[in-house]
Amino acid sequence: MLLLISGFGFYTEAQDIEVITHETFLSDTLGAEMVFEFEIVNISNVEQTVFEVRTINDLPPNWVSSLCFGQNCFPPSFDSVATTPDFNTPPLAPGDTLLSSLHVTALVNDGIANVQIQAGTFHNPNDRITIDFEASTLPVSVDGEKTLPGQYFLAQNYPNPFNPSTKIKFGLKYAGVVSLKVYDILGNEVATLINEF
């Protein structure tokens, strides 16, 4: 079973673990380290060795991302980590929570990073939970000049679609008329959020 989650404050579970995500979209200035925190909870009745695999690491040039267990961060070259002695992290006892994070650092140039992590257990390695993260930096304007991103983007809404209000960040490569509409699952237009220059 492969579960996909994205958004703010979501939790989902596989057979042995539950993952609680906080923000999955962050935006900051150039040179900043953006930290996505999430928790993995052992919901089974036995000790679990948990692993995380970075399956997508789509970063702009000169950006890095690292996986961390608590304060223990691993080199950017490590695409998978586990709660084993090799990573100085013990397996999770029933009911225990592992504090995890993904650190994305924008070193030299602006852009948008997309990183995907899958979490699972050695007991059921094919039962994985997939989490998609997006980090971005946008150019800072000088003397009130407006700047545009190098490419268009439409970010995941947050805090989540079940709250009474939500925010959607977007950017356009060129100035122009923008129309942003919301549709229900049947394809019917529900609302027009933006329709202006």
Please write out the topology.
Layout: E1 2-5, E2 11-13, E3 17-21, E4 25-28, E5 33-42, E6 50-58, E7 63-69, E8 72-73, E9 80-82, E10 97-106, E11 111-121, E12 128-137, E13 153-154, E14 170-171, E15 178-183, E16 189-196
Parallel strand pairs: 1-12, 4-12
Antiparallel strand pairs: 2-3, 3-5, 5-10, 6-9, 6-11, 7-8, 7-10, 11-12, 13-14, 15-16
**Poorly predicted runs:** 1-11
Q: Largest sheet, if any? A: 6 strands, mixed
User: Helix and strand succession?
Assistant: EEEEEEEEEEEEEEEE
The level-1 CATH class: Mainly Beta
| CATH fold title | Immunoglobulin-like
Identify the CATH architecture. Answer: Sandwich
Mean pLDDT: 82
Termini separation comes to 44 Å
Rg (CA only): 19 Å
Summarize the structure.
By secondary structure, this protein is mostly beta strands.
Walk me through what this model shows.
This protein has 197 residues and is mostly beta strands. It has a single domain, classed as Sandwich (Immunoglobulin-like). The protein is built from no helices and 16 strands. The strands form 4 sheets. Strands 1, 4, 6, 9, 11 and 12 form a 6-stranded mixed beta sheet that branches. The chain has a 6-stranded antiparallel beta sheet with strand order 2-3-5-10-7-8, with no helix packed on it. Strands 13-14 form a two-stranded antiparallel sheet. A hairpin with a 2-residue loop joins strand 7 and strand 8. The chain is globular. The termini are far apart. 24% of the residues are buried.
